[in-house]
Each structure stands twice: as structure tokens, then as C-alpha cells.
């Protein structure tokens, strides 16, 4: 079980969760994701890791309420526990010094782009971001 240590509403249907997961926080790289499950009979949901805090041993997930499972996850509060968090999974984004890069994203897809932008910047790139959204919320 992984405890929720902070929760922030970005909009009515988008929630940022910071979850205890020290081993994942330590080994994740830009582009990795986790599989999350709420409840013993819950659906497995893949979510890209939007960030991590090594000192606190936490990962950050941004979740949009769309279906039953994401709604259950977003209904959890600080102190509640997520049944399963498995990861990091997937192939990390290839990062090197390319020179100048453009990163384009929109809506909830902006959150998983953040660690990629940070890694590209840390690698010495000039990073230009293009953000889009349906509404200002």
C-alpha cells in the first residue's frame, strides 16, 4: 500500500497526487510510468510519472477523472492508501544534448511532459515548450 501525502485539484476533473513510493522515486526517469490500482478488485490504470521527490520518497501523478477507476483514485484523500503502485515501467525517453528542442503538449498531457523538459534542459538543451488546452482551467 502506498499512502497519499498530498492532493491538489488543478480543475474540477484533474487532480495532482503525491504518493509514497521511495523505490520508484529513486529509479524513475523521464518518460516512465506506473500501474496503479485502487481496491483489491480495481482496474489497473497506467499513469505517467509527472515528477518525484527523492528526499520525501514520493512520486507525483496527475489524474483526469474519466471513468470509474480514475474517479475512485481521484476520490482518495491525504492519508488514504492506493492498493498497488507498480513501476517504474516502460522505456525512458532518450535524453541527450540535441541543441534546441521543441516540446509540444496539451491539457493533462502537460504533466508527463514536465520531467522530459526538465531532463532535456539539464542535458544542456535550449527547450521551447508549446502548451495548449481546451479551456483556461
How is this structure best described in words?
The chain folds into 2 domains: 88 residues, Elongation Factor Tu (Ef-tu), domain 3 (Beta Barrel), CATH 2.40.30; 33 residues, no CATH class. The protein is built from 3 helices and 10 strands. The strands form 3 sheets. The chain has a 5-stranded antiparallel β-sheet. Strands 4-3-8 form a 3-stranded antiparallel β-sheet. A two-stranded parallel ribbon has the order 9-10. Strand 3 and strand 4 form a beta hairpin. The chain is globular, with a radius of gyration of 15 Å. The mean pLDDT is 93.
What's this entry about, in short?
This protein has about 140 residues and is α+β, with helices and mostly antiparallel strands.
User: Into how many domains do the coordinates divide?
Assistant: 2
| CATH superfamily label of the largest domain | Translation factors
Total beta strand runs: 10
> Structural class, from secondary structure content?
alpha+beta
* Main sheet: strand order: 5-6-2-1-7
CATH class of the largest domain, named Mainly Beta
Strand content: 35-45%
Characterize the biggest β-sheet: 5 strands, antiparallel
Distance between the termini: 32 Å
The CATH topology label of the largest domain is: Elongation Factor Tu (Ef-tu), domain 3
Shape call = globular
User: What are the segments in which pLDDT stays under 50 over at least 5 consecutive residues?
Assistant: none
- The CATH architecture of the largest domain can be given as Beta Barrel
Number of helices: 3
Overall pLDDT confidence:
93
For the CA atoms, what is the radius of gyration?
A: 15 Å
Order of helices and strands: EEHEEEEHEEEHE
Give the % helix. 10-25%
Amino acid at each position: 500500500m502506498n499512502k497519499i501525502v498530498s492532493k491538489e485539484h488543478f480543475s474540477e476533473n484533474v487532480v495532482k497526487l503525491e504518493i509514497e513510493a521511495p523505490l520508484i522515486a529513486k529509479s524513475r526517469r523521464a518518460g516512465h510510468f506506473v500501474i496503479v490500482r485502487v481496491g483489491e478488485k480495481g482496474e489497473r490504470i497506467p499513469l505517467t510519472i509527472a515528477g518525484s521527490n527523492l528526499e520525501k520518497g514520493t512520486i507525483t501523478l496527475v489524474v483526469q477523472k474519466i471513468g470509474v477507476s480514475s474517479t475512485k483514485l481521484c476520490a482518495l484523500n491525504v492519508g488514504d492508501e492506493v492498493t498497488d503502485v507498480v513501476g517504474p515501467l516502460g522505456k525512458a525517453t532518450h535524453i541527450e544534448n540535441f541543441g534546441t528542442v521543441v516540446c509540444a503538449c496539451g491539457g493533462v498531457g502537460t504533466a508527463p511532459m514536465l520531467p522530459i523538459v526538465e531532463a532535456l534542459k539539464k542535458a544542456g538543451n535550449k527547450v521551447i515548450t508549446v502548451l495548449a488546452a481546451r479551456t483556461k482551467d
